[in-house]
Amino acid sequence: MEFIWILFAFVCGLAVKLANLPPLIGFLFAGFLLNYLGIQPSNILESLANIGITLMLFSIGLKLHVKDLLKREVWASTLSHMGIWTILFSALALLIGVLSLPFFGTLDLKTAALIGFGLSFSSTVCVMKLLEESGELKTRHGQLALGILVMQDIVAVVFLVAATGKIPSIWALSLFALLLVRPLINKILDQAGHGEMLPLTGLFLALGGYQLFDLVGVKGDLGALIAGILLASHGKASEMNKSLMNFKDLFLIGFFLSIGFTALPDLAMIGMSLIITLVLLIKFALFFGLLTKLKLRARTSFLSSLILSNYSEFGLIVVSLSVANGWLAKEWLVILALAVSFSFVITSILYRQSHRLYQTNKDTIRRYESSGCLPEDIFSQPQDARILVVGLGRVGRGAFESLKNLVGNGVAGMDADRNRIKKMQDNNDNVFYGDGEDADLWERLDTSNIQLIMLALPIAEDSTNIAIQLRKANYQGQIAAIARYQDEREELLSAGIDNVFNFYTEAGTGFAEESLALIQ
Fold first, then answer.
1. CATH 3.40.50.300 is right for the domain spanning 378-519
2. Residue 73 has pLDDT above 60, yes or no
């Protein structure tokens, strides 16, 4: 039985990937196809899905800083959006009911509000997958979307407590003692090394956090998130996240398959779910309007709104509770499962074109930008730099350090990870915060004295987009980039990049040359 799930997931995922779409769309389709063929899920699939979500929330925690949740643009936008959206959707659902469309006619104000509340959440799974695949998790809009998702999770915990009447145990107060054992957890992580014990330690802490919170009557997913947050400042947090990435992605396939097993729809259900999917336009407009009013830049607001404009699997939980209590007909579970699936597909397709969409419509989008931006969104201008390194990960940081020894402050560095930039600035490095794919940045940045820009980015498509934006911004200097594979190298060269360094091949060459010097 397990092989059949893997077979369908593989075939559908590969077919969708060949069409240049995210594989998760294929996994969703595989679930519905398996359900249609009468193949029933087992407890194993549900367990895989649960582990995948738990690991994903733990990974979110590893990248999250609590102070980010206290920013006004995070908590104010989340709570305002959920409240306004619930009211708007309730009114729209009751209006559709007046038109005697199927299933909507039976809704009253209470049930319409419940469905609206469930649909106010955005999918943590979908958003995280897209941000990771595009390498934008540490960008300004990525961190903003992440903060909003965590705030939504907190609201979800409060709702489940109120709806189920399940009050946390008095022992839940003892969870605050986790702050005291944090040094011990850090020591355990120090001793885990860099091999197979590191991902095993991550699995232990993620699942342990889940079980601990669940044991005292608190949502277990929140425990996995908190466990990750406790380790976010540890030096190995990033390494642990990378070691868990493949495990998490594999388990999440179970989650996407399980959505298809929710139920089989008829034409009326499909029609109603498509109507609900169209309402995503309102969700996007509401996010965009609120974020710009909170003085976020138009580009940040646009990208964050676009990736958050989907429906969450939590909506299915809200409807399941409503069906169990007799408030809603069971058909609504199928309708919402379809709407969630459709929203995943739409977000996955549109977000891959997000930077191109902004570039094409930036003049229109900028009209909604507030006159004064937040202080952290103001661009810094590198001083006296002739060389700019974009991307300060392992390869970029190594290049920056080497050039600093050669030309001093003649080299500057730029990265979209604000915490990384702060640490390097504390070390008196000539670096500044910036998102390389931000078209506004290159238009406002004075690059007339910069002779060379080095793109040390892990995703070739990002380097291609930046090169195009640089030429449009009339940058006249040289551009160099890195590539992992030969086909990527050819792509980058055809995009107008002057030199492409294949770091797998060239690292081996450099290693051989320097080692040979030892015996000559």
1. no
2. yes
Angle at 360 (CA atoms; ends 355, 364), nearest 5 degrees:
110
Q: What are the structural domain ranges in the chain?
A: 1-36, 50-146+167-357, 378-519
pLDDT of residue 518: 66
518 exposure class (CB count in 10 Å sphere: 0-12, 13-18, 19+): exposed
DSSP string, 226-272: HHHHHHTTSTTHHHHHHHHHHHHHHHHHHHHHHHHTS----HHHHHH
> For 279-331, how does the pLDDT look when each residue is reduced to its tens digit (9 = 90+)?
999 999 999 999 999 999 898 999 999 999 999 877 777 777 777 777 787 78
91-119 confidence digits (pLDDT tens): 999 999 888 788 888 888 988 998 999 89
Place of tokens 């580009």: 299
Residue 358: strand, helix, or coil: helix
* Bridge partners (DSSP) listed for residue 453: 388, 479
387-390 β-sheet, strand order: 431-433, 411-415, 387-390, 452-455, 478-483, 499-502
CA pair distance 15, 34, nearest whole angstrom: 16
Count the Cβ atoms, other than its own, within 10 Å of residue 287. 26
pLDDT at residue 504 in the model: 66
Question: Can you say whether the dihedral through the CA atoms of 186, 188, 194, 196 is positive or negative?
Answer: negative
Those residues with Cβ within 8 angstroms of residue 366's Cβ, 6 or more apart along the chain or in another chain: 298
Q: Does domain 50-146+167-357 have CATH number 1.20.1530.20?
A: yes
- Which stretches within 298-393 are classed as H helix? 298-308, 314-324, 331-351, 354-366
Whole-number average pLDDT of the chain: 83
Beta bridge partners of 414: 390, 432
Q: Which class for 20: exposed (0-12), middle (13-18), buried (19 or more C-beta within 10 A)?
A: exposed
Asked whether the domain spanning 378-519 has the same topology as the one spanning 50-146+167-357, the reply is no
For residue 370, count other CB atoms closer than 10 A to its CB: 15
pLDDT at 1 over 60: no
More reliable by pLDDT, 235 or 386: 386
